[in-house]
C-alpha cells in the first residue's frame, strides 16, 4: 500500500483489485437480495463499500495486534447479517 504512493504501476494494480472486490461484493449483495434486486440500485454499492471499508479497518487492527482475527471475523459477519 505504501509503495503505491510513489509507484504508478503498484497504484494501478491496487486500484483494479479494489474495484474488482467492490464489484464482486455488489454482485453478492444483489444475489442475496434475490431475483427482484435492481441492477442499478445504488444501495448495493453503498453497502458493499461500507462492508469493504469495515473489512479494511479490521484487517489493519488485526495486523497491528490490536484485535484478534476471530473478533474481526465475528464483527464482519455480524455486519453482513444485518445487511
From TrEMBL:
Residues 2-82 form the BetI-type transcriptional repressor C-terminal domain. InterPro entries: BetI_C (IPR039538), Tet_transcr_reg_TetR-rel_C_sf (IPR036271). It comes from the Bacteria. SUPFAM superfamilies: Tetracyclin repressor-like, C-terminal domain. This is TetR family transcriptional regulator C-terminal domain-containing protein. It comes from Promicromonospora aerolata.
